[in-house]
């Protein structure tokens, strides 16, 4: 780990609390059989703990100053690979034959991700998990903004339960590892954070049309105060939707957050079968 001024345009806040780092390592349970993807290694605070544990660490960094310093700091580690790239532009599967990936594709993700691109990074990971031949992630451990974390592990009926919750929990179990106060960073961000763990798994109820499922879920939460029958009125006739919901044991007056992930899947499958 080295000293480095932060750059606002990259949303940089250095995690300095080693207790949080160790909680992340414990949650990921990294062993010598694991190849770890680290997104935004920053000053190497997490990297230096990962390297002795893992088969390899593939770190993706966009900041040129950090790239140079990280390469210098970890040059002696044969199991360290630094990819000078924007994570959002990197096709990891396509890069699997690249020199940076000569240890193979990563099977775990452990990262303190930049908050300003949390949404796009989650979308990228979700797309990876939902692919026909998904990358073999055993665990994804992320340090994210507290509000985002609450949405990831929320349960039906809770205010934080939304479209992101449904889409994440369709593909993975999600748990809170630990809360992280702003003072754990330098400089402290304006919000608190949390570490979450996603454990990918086969869906409990499988969607017949994943793109259609995603579309309906987003529409269903389009206006959280509205009932589903109003949010989805542009997709299916109101009376027809109420009949479908009743047949599936769902209250016709339900809102999006009232349904479990499995109910969302069965409802979307039913709607999509009826749609032209």
UniProtKB/TrEMBL annotation:
Binding site for S-adenosyl-L-methionine: 13, 15, 40, 61, 86, 112
Keywords, alphabetical: Cytoplasm, Methyltransferase, RNA-binding, rRNA processing, S-adenosyl-L-methionine, Transferase
Protein name: Ribosomal RNA small subunit methyltransferase A
Reaction(s) the record says it catalyses: adenosine(1518)/adenosine(1519) in 16S rRNA + 4 S-adenosyl-L-methionine = N(6)-dimethyladenosine(1518)/N(6)-dimethyladenosine(1519) in 16S rRNA + 4 S-adenosyl-L-homocysteine + 4 H(+)
Family per record: Belongs to the class I-like SAM-binding methyltransferase superfamily. rRNA adenine N(6)-methyltransferase family. RsmA subfamily.
UniProt-recorded Gene Ontology molecular function terms: 16S rRNA (adenine(1518)-N(6)/adenine(1519)-N(6))-dimethyltransferase activity; RNA binding
Localisation per UniProt entry: Cytoplasm
Enzyme Commission code: 2.1.1.182
Coiled-coil spans in chain: none
NCBIfam families given in the database record: ksgA
Natural source organism: Shackletoniella antarctica
EC primary class: transferase
Database matches in PROSITE patterns: RRNA_A_DIMETH, SAM_RNA_A_N6_MT
Taxonomy, superkingdom: Bacteria
Gene Ontology cellular component annotations, sorted alphabetically: cytosol
Location (main, coarse): cytoplasm
Domain Ribosomal RNA adenine methylase transferase N-terminal intervals: 20-202
Known function: Specifically dimethylates two adjacent adenosines (A1518 and A1519) in the loop of a conserved hairpin near the 3'-end of 16S rRNA in the 30S particle. May play a critical role in biogenesis of 30S subunits.
């Amino acid at each position: 780990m080295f000293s480095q001024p932060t750059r606002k345009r990259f949303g940089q806040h250095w995690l300095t609390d080693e207790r949080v780092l160790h909680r992340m390592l414990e949650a990921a349970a990294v062993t010598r059989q694991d190849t770890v993807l680290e997104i935004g290694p920053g000053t190497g605070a997490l990297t230096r703990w990962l390297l002795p544990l893992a088969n390899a660490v593939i770190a993706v960094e966009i900041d040129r100053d950090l790239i140079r310093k990280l390469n210098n700091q970890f040059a002696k580690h044969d199991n360290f690979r630094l990819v000078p790239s924007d994570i959002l532009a990197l096709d990891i599967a396509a890069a699997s034959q690249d020199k940076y990936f000569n240890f193979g594709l990563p099977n775990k993700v452990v990262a303190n991700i930049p908050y300003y691109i949390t949404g796009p990074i989650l979308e990228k990971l979700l797309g990876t998990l939902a692919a026909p031949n998904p990358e073999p992630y055993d665990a994804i451990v992320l340090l994210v903004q507290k509000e985002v974390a609450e949405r990831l592990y929320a349960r039906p009926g809770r205010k934080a339960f939304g479209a992101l919750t449904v889409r994440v929990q369709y593909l993975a179990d999600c748990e809170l590892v630990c809360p992280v106060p702003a003072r754990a960073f330098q400089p402290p961000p304006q919000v608190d954070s949390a570490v979450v763990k996603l454990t990918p798994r086969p869906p409990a109820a499988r969607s017949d049309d994943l793109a259609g499922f995603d579309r309906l879920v987003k529409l269903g939460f389009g206006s959280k105060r509205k009932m589903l029958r109003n949010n989805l009125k542009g997709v299916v006739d109101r009376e027809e939707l109420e009949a479908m919901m009743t047949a599936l044991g769902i209250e016709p007056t339900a809102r999006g957050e009232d349904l479990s992930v499995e109910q969302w899947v069965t409802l979307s499958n039913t709607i999509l079968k009826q749609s032209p």
